[in-house]
Amino acid sequence: MNDLNAPRAAVPSWRARPAYQQPSYPDAAALEAVGADLRSRPPLVFAGEVDALRAQMAAASQGRAFVLMGGDCAESFEDSSATSIRLKVQTILQMAAVLTYAASTPVVKIGRMAGQYAKPRSADTETRDGVTLPSYRGDSVNDHAFTPEARVPDPARMLEAYLRAGTTLNLIRAFTMGGYADLREVHSWNRGFMANPAYKRFESFAVEIDRAMRFMEAAGVDFDALRQVDFYASHEALLLEYEDAMIRQDSRSGRLYDTSAHLLWVGERTRGAGDAHVALLEGVHNPVGVKIGPTTSRDELLALIDHLNPNGDPGRLSLITRMGAQRIRQALPALVEAVQADGRPVTWITDPMHGNTITSDNGYKTRRFDTIMAEVRGFFEVHRELGTVPGGIHVELTGDDVTECLGGGEQIDEAALARRYETLVDPRLNHQQSLEMAFEVAELLRG
Ligand SMILES: O=C[C@H](O)[C@H](O)COP(=O)(O)O
Ligand SMILES: C=C(OP(=O)(O)O)C(=O)O
Ligand SMILES: [Mn+2]
For this protein, what does the record note about how its cofactor is bound (predicted)? Predict the structure, then answer.
């Protein structure tokens, strides 16, 4: 195991760059103390694992693997129970089994989990019934409750985020290494999903997978060897003080790693090539992602590649496009062509959630299942037309039966949103909707 506690080389200076979406902490000394505390603590992930993911992201950029990244928009401290973590892991494993069969390649499983505690917001304040307070920015910054005290940023929350991430990761490792990921078990869960008449249209698919499983068994495949899977953690590298405090140097290679997660991404609101967030990720060896919205220019994109993957190392940089179903076919091709002409490899991933957010007539922030799928289809079509590789999907989902997104086989309508709307920020696909998406993406993967 690499030694990630070794003294740290100088981290490239993001402090001199413009930094957006950061909390303003009232107590600078308290912030400094938390930073010092975090720096003294063990890493959450290890260099060898991070390098393994980088190699798998490289495979995905070449069509030799497919990335499935999913989890809450905002994880909460309150909802970090074993059941909630288990159901998310289960949902991702079930989706991955379907996608693996369809793609005939390994599926790289990455949770938006164990660290997704900081949120960029479109407004600095929130007003309810004439009262205006600072916006909720994720549990690692402030509290969701709508009171003046709750909304004050508290640096001690970063320490809590570190501890929650550690316990979440511990449970994920236990599930995925301890037999919970057994392919036979995962397949039987998927059979349960198929038993619902709402998903009858996928039946022939399920029958095929069934047959493939029996073939494997007859051919003597050692299913016990398939009981363990690699499962990685990712989150948005938003909170600069936290991410900086989690950087460690690998004593064998001398490289710096952000040990808060295997993969970190920069959000659409903080992705300026000359800004602090990109500078922070420039200095670390993790695989990184950048969210790419519909207004991104070719020059912005090439500048991001110059900063984040100057040498064109495969697996280093993923471009996570979130254009909106209406705009993807117009906005994506020029960007793909620019990257193609540049020649440095990237892993293209679709985030069909963030460009498709609407407000329902009864006031819920929501998304339609059909619109989400329309963006995924647009993503596949553009890449197929240009001869590039659709490398993966990035989705906001949960393993619970929430009612936050409209539609899908269960036909969640506006009235149903009131039933179980639990997200702290953006609406997530529920367990059933997530599996339905996996079957639809499977059809796209088979072309
Ligand atoms: O999750 C992403 C962003 O934080 C979110 O889409 C912004 O939401 P807001 O417009 O409610 O701030
Ligand atoms: C904030 C998010 O996305 P984006 O940066 O693409 O808006 C997110 O993934 O929750
Ligand atoms: Mn979100």
Answer: Binds 1 divalent cation per subunit. The enzyme is active with manganese, cobalt or cadmium ions.
